[in-house]
Structure formats: C-alpha cells, structure tokens
Amino acid sequence: MDLTLVGQGLLSGFLFGGVYSLMAVGLTLIFGVMRVVNFAHGDMMVWGMYLAWLLSTRAGIDPYVGFIVCAAALFLFGLMIQRGLVERIVDAPHEMQILLMLGVALVLENAALVAFGPDPARVRSPLSQATVWMGPIFVDVARLVTFGLAMALTAALWLFLARTDLGRSMRAAADNPYGARVIGTDVRKVYAAAFGVGAACVGAAGALVSPILPFQPTSGLGLSVTSFNIVIIGGMGSLPGAFAGGILVSVAESMGAVFLSPSMKELVSFGLLIAILLFRPAGLFGKTAG
Amino acid sequence: MTQGGRARGTDRRTFLKTAGAVAGTAVAAGFPAALRAQAPTVKIGTLHCVTGPLAEPGQACRLGAQMAADAVNAAGGIKSMGGAKIELILGDTQTKADVARAEAERLINAGAQILMGTFNSGDTAAVVPVAQQRRVPFLVDISAADPITANVAKSVRDGQQKVQYVYRNFPTGTLFGQRAVQYFTEIFKEAGVSPKRVVVMHANDLFGQNQARGFQAAHKAANPSWEIVEVISWPEPPSDLSTEVSRAKAAKPDVIAPITRPASAQLLLPEIVKQRLDIMGIVGPGSPGLYEAGQIAALKENLEYVMASNPWPNFKNPRTRQVSEEYAKRSGGKTFDTNSGYSYDGIFVLADTLERAKSTDPDTVVDALKKTRFTGGLMVYGGPVIFNEMGDNPNAIPAMIQILGQKPVVVWPKDVAAEKVVFPRPKR
After folding, report:
1. Do you find a cis peptide bond into B174, omega within 30 degrees of 0?
2. What are the domain boundaries of chain A?
3. In Å, what is the CA distance from B74 to each residue of B41, B64, B83, B109, B357?
4. Shortest CA distance to B175 belongs to which of B408, B388, B423?
5. What pLDDT was estimated at residue B1?
6. What pLDDT sits at residue B3?
7. Interchain contact B242–A (C-beta under 8 A)
8. Which residues in chain B have their CB less than 8 angstroms from residue A17's CB?
C-alpha cells in the first residue's frame, strides 16, 4: 500500500474531522440540555452557509471572519424557534418533537429554495485553495483553520458550561429539570439560551464549512444524517463525544476510501454506527442510561 | 306487494323529469364542447428535475421545451390535426425517482397523451414502467443510461410486452463511450502528444456508473495507445473528494477523465488544482457539471481548458443561433446548451411525429415515431433523427466542448469546431 496515500488520508481525514465536529457540537448541546432532537439541524446549517455566502458576495466579508455574524443571526433564530415552537413540545412525546422539527426543516429548506434558487453555491475565500506542503504530503489550509476554530469553539463552549452561571444552570436543567426548578432556575430561560447557543454553533459551523463544501437548499438532510451519525457515535449530550466522534468518523471514512474504495466510505461510517449501537449504545462518551 | 302508497318502479312523470334533466345537461355540457372542438390540443406531459441537486440542467430543459412548444404553436400547430396546439403539462421530479414515478402518473391522469423527460437517468428509468403500463408514448429527451430503452426492447423481443412505448433522442452511455474514446485518440494525435495514463473519476449514480462502463468498454474494444490505469468513484453528492484525488494522484495520471454532476464538479476541480496534479489536461467522456453557466461562474479559472464530450447545439445552423438568442433573453443570459437544446428538439420531433400520425392514439403515435426521419434539429447530429431497434437515435452524437475564455466552444470534430483545441493545457 502506498504509504504516502495512507499518510495523506490520515491527515486529510483528521483535519476534516474538525469540520464534522463543528457540525455535531450544536446538535449535541441541544439534545443534552433539552432532550430535543433537532431534526432541522442540517437545514439550519445550510442557512448558515447561505448567510456566509451573502456576506461574502455582497459585503466582501471573508467567511473566516463573517462566521461570527452567522452565529449571531442563528442565535436569534434559535431563540425565536425555541420560544415560539419548541417550548410547547418540550414535555411532549418524542413523535411530536420529531414532527415539529421536521416541519421547521421543511420550511427552512423551501425558504432557501425560494430565496437562493436550487443551484449549488460555494463561497470563495483566498484560503480555499491554499496548501502547505511537507514533502509529498500536503495540508489543506482551509481545513486546518476550520479544525483550529472547531477546537477553539468546543473549548469555549466547555468553559461556558463549566464556569458561567448560565452554563451551570444548563447542566442542572439537563441533569434534573424538576430539581433545577426547585432550586430556582428559570428553566424556560435556560432552554431558550441552550437552543440559541446550539443554533449559533450550527450557524458558525455552516459559515466555516461554506468554502469547503458546495451546498444547495437540498443539502440539509445529508448534513443532518451525518451529524446524527457523529453524535450517536460520540454519545448524545456529550461535548467531548461530539468532538471525538467527528474526528473518528472522518478518519474512518478516509481510511475506508484509501483501503477499500472511495465509494464505500459511507459504508464504513455507518458500519461504525451499527457497531457502536450494538456494543456501546450510549456512545463512546455517553452516560449509560439514567 | 305495494308499500303503503309508494308506487313501484318509476312513474311516467319522474321518468320524463329525469330524462329531461339528463338531456338538458348533455346539451349544456356538450354544446360548448362542440364549440371547443375547433381548437383541439395535444397534451404533452413535460417532466424534468427542476428542483433538487440537478435543478440547473432541469430548468434549462423545461425552458427549451416551452420555447419549442411556443414555436410550434406560432407556426400553426399540428396542421394534420386541424391546427391542434401543443399544450405542455409541466411536472417536477425533484431529482427523486419515487417522485418521478408519481409525477408521471399525475401527468397522465391530468390528460397527458405523450410524455417527455426527464434529464436524470435514475428518474427516467423510474418513469419507463409507468409509460409501458399506461401505454403512453414516452420520448426521452435527455438520459444516457442504456437500460432505459434496452430493457423495454428486450422485453418486447422476449414477448413479455407487446409494444415499446419508450424512445430516446439522445446518445446512450455506449455511444458516449465510443465517441469519447474516438475523440480522445484523435485529439491526442492532433496535438502531437502521446499521453499514456488516463484516470477515470466518476459519480456513483446510475448515470455515472453507466457512462464509466461505456467508456471502459469502448476503450477495450478500440485498444488505443493510452491506458485507463485507475477508476475512482464517489457517492453523489460528495462532501469531500480529497482522498479520491489523492488516490488519482498516486496513479500518476497524464489525463484525468471526470464524469461529474454539478455539485461534485465544484469539489473535484479545485481539489485537482490544490493537490497540484501534474497532468496534460482534464478531458471528460461526457457529463454535466463541466460547461453550464452556473458552473463557470462558480469555478471560474478552475474550469478553463477543461474538455467534455457532450451533445451540443450546432451553432453553424442559423436557426440555432436565432433560438439561442431568444433563449438568452428568456433565461436571463444563460447559454443555449445540451439540455435546453435536446428538450427543444424533443418537442419538434414529437410535433413531426404527430403530423404523420394524425392522431394521439398511442399505437399510431408509436408507429409514426418508429418511422421518423427528422432533419430539422438544432443539435450536432450525425444524420437525421431516426430510431433504431432499441428505440435509440444512433445519429445523436456528442462533440468535444472546451471552456476557452470562460465560454464553452466546440473544438472537435473539426467540421463542426468553432475554435482550435488547446491540448495539453498551458502550465500555470
């Protein structure tokens, strides 16, 4: 086996894992705190991508700077959705949650279709084509930057949950909503903040990924499925799980592409999902039942 | 036994009232119909993927079909059927096979007497059984996968079906492959170079697999001086092609032969540049994604000098140039290309068929279709539009298109070329 190819595959896979992690972090936060499965995840991310595209083409703002605006915009959107819709179904059976979020996904996808048309779009950034060569192996600069930012964002989120009052309230509400209410936590406000922050992560992810992936309004479903795969493997509700899961899935797919065949790489990542569900259903970092 | 005063059966008054009402309704309903009979229409169900990942080419197809229907009607409609106008009933497959099937049924229920579509091989294949079951002639304006017509032809030969209702005015995967190999060899010879190693990279959907198979089969049969050293595929649409391109690079290619869709082309071409593949050129055996206006706008210099063997309008025909200008106006500046062109020609082929069939009876239309010898097409053809025993048009051929100066131009065969082919591509 060509060692250069294997080495390159490992490196590319590892760096792309940062992209996957970023996608998964928002999803796991919302589930971890509110036990709501955000089926509109992929479509929210597509809107993050389109916002980045608008900023880039209309205002000339590079997505590696503009992602902050996308995060803020989606934070507000998340708050709205939570207050207006999700709040009503937090205690409802799972089927209602699924239906509601699928409905939101449909509305988002078709709104994007109406607003931007169906053609694939890409954001051009000066970093898009930059590479750094180390002998026969190269580092894709765009992915390196995204990896770095993914790590930074995950670390920031971790600090937020561990050190700030709001973060601690979120963890309390996640562990025991009734108990949290008893000690005076405004659970409504916490849930709204959680959904908003989760949505902001998704928006940032979309913006940072927009120079790397061509996207269309119909891309949402594929992104949702990939994110779910990562989050289930890493453990739903676990931040380090989302990060590790992203890297693991990406490296697995990359090695699948190198050793088997590129068209089989999804076979590898879904095979991994099945293995995890069989042997460790809570995910790598997930808490086992309770 | 009488039931307390109620008369058994109908009495004369009720009978006269009912008969009068029925007769009156019949006259009222029939009378305008008699007036309407002076402007009959032929309903053609036009089914394309106007939303979904293949929306850009799908919308081009729809606009081409609409323009052609308008042109036919403006010239007097189907004269042998009393000036019948062509009415298009539009359908959207959403680039999904199950939706395509359902839409085909819906169009037929809405009165479509003929079907045309769909651009995407996977969706077209799903519509074929509907057309055969409901006995509705189906002209495939664009779709390359061989099985679309081959399966039906075989089942008619084997006696499982009586009549073939599916016909295709577009090159098949096999024909794409044969012409691609021929053009590759001729262009290499013209350029005075002899590349040895070609790597095929293709999308893994029905169309991509079929094209790749056709190209490889044609290569084996022709046995030219260049080899296909590796075939790499990816699930469509892909999120990442870096490993695929790394694998291609490891095969030390002289030429990359991509079979893409618009989304994968947008990932593949920049990746080839990023990984610094030292190649003579990128020459596609025939696929979307390498010539559309939207693709050129998104890929810019990454698409320059890229070639693809695709069916193309014959711009040496003055009528083509006229239609192309009108198309640019109606589409907001887009180029009249493979997709809009073949859908346009498709409607004209159907109009010609209806002139000769003088009826919309399915079997009569099919008989007339089989006898087609249409020379009024706008595309590059190798002869008149005819249909062979498989239901395909062997004269529908591709031409080698190259992006020069950010515009797609025909560069091969020489007799239809607009500009000289540039190969190998200049070093950056």
Report:
1. no
2. 3-156+197-279
3. 14, 15, 10, 27, 20
4. B388
5. 45
6. 44
7. yes
8. none
Whether residue B100 is predicted with pLDDT greater than 60 in this model: the reply is: yes
In eight-state DSSP terms, residue B3 is: B
For the record, the structure tokens of B348 come out as 């004209």
**Cβ-based contacts under 8 A for chains A and B:** 95
- The ranges assigned to domains in chain B are 41-171+315-396, 174-310+400-416
Mean pLDDT on B40-48: 94
User: DSSP string covering B366-423, please?
Assistant: HHHHHT--B----B-BSSSB---TTSB-TTB--EEEEEETTEEEEEESGGG-SS----
Of A119, A218, A262, the CB nearest to B294: A119
The one-letter code for the residue type at B186 is E
Instruction: Write out the CATH class of domain B41-171+315-396.
Output: alpha beta
CA distance B163 to chain A (A): 38
B410 forms bridges with which residues in the sheet? B401
Q: Which residue has the tokens 């949950």?
A: A161
ipTM of the complex: 0.75
> Tell me, which fold does domain B174-310+400-416 have in CATH?
Rossmann fold (3.40.50)
Q: Is the dihedral of CA A9, A14, A19, A20 positive or negative?
A: positive
Return the amino acid letter for A189.
K
Number of other CB atoms surrounding residue B38 within 10 Å: 8
The tens digit of pLDDT for each residue in B263-291 reads: 899 889 999 988 889 999 999 999 889 99
Average pLDDT (A145-168) is 87
Give the pLDDT of residue B18.
62
Task: Please indicate whether, in this complex, the C-beta atoms of B243 and A13 are within 8 angstroms of each other.
Answer: yes
